[in-house]
């Protein structure tokens, strides 16, 4: 009897020990990351070995691709938790500038290496390539030491994974991080496979996880079977795979009762997809909570927007140059001064202007509050005075009543509130109700086959979306949206392309050679009603704009634009493709302007 009890006890202990052993041996998300970083480092070591041994371009190119695929397994975590390092591992091959300190940093990472080895690898680039690989290894060490000490909770994992899906949509499948080799499609599939692997660590028995696994696997297979960059159907891929995965992750979060990460974010935490109507939060771009948007502020701001008393001679309002029926542009090549002379810049649309980190073509102001003051006090535009405007408002009973309703904490209107109210009206001009938006939310009838072809060109072969990021279609970089980019494209003075525009753009305010001729990347939304185009209004039609880009911008036209950030090689779009591209851009028009 005692022997039976002893045998039973031993068996029980063995089972308990076995279960405990399996539980302990199961890697956590952090352990998986560290393992994958080791694998990435091994790929880089092999890459360096091939470069050192003067291997063929084919061998080096294949190892480069393998290294990038290894990086894609950990990109979701690196970009989320350590974005400063990510920038120098897989960021654009352009100088990183700190304008406040008037200095810049050389780019490093995969995109720099890509330019060295493709389309041709020369042995004289060997030392520079090895140098880049050494820097990359140093960054891996930094990542490893960081991940070893930080806590990675479930809510942060989910937030990071969601952001990575949005990164795939807006950057991954557009070729943003593989502009020359265009290896983005299979890499996107690799990024998706990581999602269920990570969620399994939270709860492998979740009901939603099975669906996520199934969809991610289908998406990965779709990428493998359709890996031609130019022919890839991005419209299908997003609507059939990426948006459903995004929604299912939200279901997973609800099932597991995982709370949202508390943070200030441009993307609202409750969204199902990147294309939800209310996905973007304008308050993420304001100075402080006191400046947050409200409907009352927008109503007051609209009254101020149309008030000619804001100008010196009481003869010009904000609406004089920003006409509502033209999506708040004026239809002129360049704006007119108070005396009727031509100014140097085209009037940009105010729609979606609130979803940027800088205002004006030259990005001289960081927010809409400062933008309104800049225009009001500009001697050529309104020549007003905030002190005088404030004094007028203090004598106006109707305004005082509105201000008191809008800003109840104050006994009388203040100058900052005038600015904030006008800015709030501008913040109300984002509709997200175009035919493109309807399509991305499931209405497949809202776009024609030609328009879908144009969307795929925009996000693929034509390379438009590498600067005009989906779905804002401006230069505010997803998925964090913490930076708005400028570009140097070499805009001509005339359509005939005889001379380069002499406008120096951002360089006027920041004397860095990289900024000569640099201008903010504006939104393409409502572009059908905001002609003419470019900072100087040089192009009257979208067809002219597409033709300019198709030729490779300023350098493609033969201008000397040494700092051009736009690829200067021809896009090789045929007339049918150019037409489809224009047709797609017209689907980005909000309902009120259709």
From TrEMBL:
Q: Name one Pfam family in it.
A: CCP_MauG
Alphabetized PROSITE patterns for the sequence:
CYTC, PROKAR_LIPOPROTEIN
Instruction: Point out the coiled-coil segments of this chain.
Output: none
UniProt cross-references to InterPro entries, sorted A to Z: Cyt_c-like_dom (IPR009056), Cyt_c-like_dom_sf (IPR036909), Cytochrome_c_Peroxidase/MauG (IPR051395), Di-haem_cyt_c_peroxidsae (IPR004852), Imelysin_sf (IPR038352)
Q: Where is the Cytochrome c domain?
A: 296-430, 449-589
Annotated Gene Ontology cellular component terms: cell envelope
Question: Annotated Gene Ontology MF terms?
Answer: cytochrome-c peroxidase activity; electron transfer activity; heme binding; metal ion binding
Q: Which UniProt keywords apply?
A: Heme, Iron, Metal-binding, Oxidoreductase, Peroxidase, Signal
Q: Where primarily located? A: other
Entry's localization field: Cell envelope
Query: What protein does this entry describe?
Result: Cytochrome-c peroxidase
What is the native source organism of this protein? Flavobacterium chungangense
